[in-house]
Q: What sequence folds into this?
């Protein structure tokens, strides 16, 4: 559960992950405004460059994004409120479609899941992080999807639990030292969703990155399947946790499934602290890669 490891990565969140910055001055020359077929002349995205609404850039993965709001060079696959995938008309690469996990495979992975966790909710959430399970070779894409779903399965008991089961913990997840406090109430920021988002500052950080007011209305995570999945993808794609890399980077850069465990709950499970929990995650990952017809790769343990 995120509640168990929150202090380890609070500093990273407070530093800001895709959080909207208001009133920042331009730090570089503005890129040219996009036309309908602007991909052929779109500049490469640069962190720290100022972009205005309508600018099209080519990201490091070769795909194109259009600025939905002015921003000082936020990362298109992290700050998804500011950027949207851009489909080119002539000359550029079209936005790829299709998730590497079919609905029948998803159903096979989670035969007893809670009806809240819909496949359509998951696929609707994918637009928030277009690089997820969509970077590298087909093998890497499937391995990342299997790794995410295996960890999610472990965290939720097979996609059964939507909210944290220990209600006695609910009042503990309000950090009043934060300047924004807990506007939804002290007991409102308990664990929700596929990676059990908890604490007011995590709801603030995830909401800012996704362009959703989760600090003011955290209940959206247990009421809207797409939002729930987006918060899980937010953690997967942007948070190192107690590890040294995001789970997304661990899979894309082939560091191995073990590093995703470390980034999610390494302080409590890795380095021999809880081998049974690690084995549970690894076993699920091996099952899911088998369903997807791909080898699990190396470095499975942490």
A:
């Amino acid at each position: 559960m995120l509640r168990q490891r929150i202090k380890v990565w609070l500093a990273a969140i407070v530093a800001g992950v895709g959080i909207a910055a208001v009133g920042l001055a331009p730090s570089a020359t503005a890129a040219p405004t996009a036309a309908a077929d602007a991909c052929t002349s779109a500049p490469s995205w640069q962190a720290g460059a100022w972009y205005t609404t309508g600018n099209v850039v080519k990201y490091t993965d070769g795909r194109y994004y259009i600025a939905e709001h002015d921003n000082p060079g936020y990362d298109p696959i992290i700050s998804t409120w500011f950027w949207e995938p851009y489909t080119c008309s002539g000359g550029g690469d079209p936005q790829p479609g299709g998730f590497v996990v079919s609905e029948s495979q998803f159903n096979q992975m989670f035969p007893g899941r809670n009806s809240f966790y819909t496949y359509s909710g998951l696929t609707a959430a994918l637009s928030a992080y277009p690089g997820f399970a969509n970077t590298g070779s087909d093998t890497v894409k499937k391995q990342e999807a299997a790794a995410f779903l295996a960890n999610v399965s472990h965290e939720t008991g097979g996609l059964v639990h939507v909210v944290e089961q220990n209600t006695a913990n609910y009042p503990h997840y309000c950090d009043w030292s934060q300047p924004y406090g807990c506007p939804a109430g002290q007991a409102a920021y308990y664990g929700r969703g596929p990676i059990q988002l908890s604490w007011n500052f995590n709801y603030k950080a995830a909401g800012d990155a996704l362009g959703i007011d989760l600090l003011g209305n955290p209940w959206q995570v247990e009421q809207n399947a797409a939002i729930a999945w987006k918060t899980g993808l937010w953690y997967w794609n942007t948070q190192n946790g107690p590890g040294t890399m995001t789970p997304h980077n661990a899979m894309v850069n082939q560091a191995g499934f073990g590093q995703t465990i470390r980034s999610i709950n390494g302080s409590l499970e890795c380095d021999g602290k809880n081998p049974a929990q690690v084995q549970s995650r690894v076993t699920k990952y091996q099952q899911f890669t088998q369903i997807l017809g791909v080898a699990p790769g190396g470095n499975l343990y942490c």
Observations:
- The beta strands are 56-58, 64-67, 83-85.
- Residues 138-156 form the longest helix (19 residues).
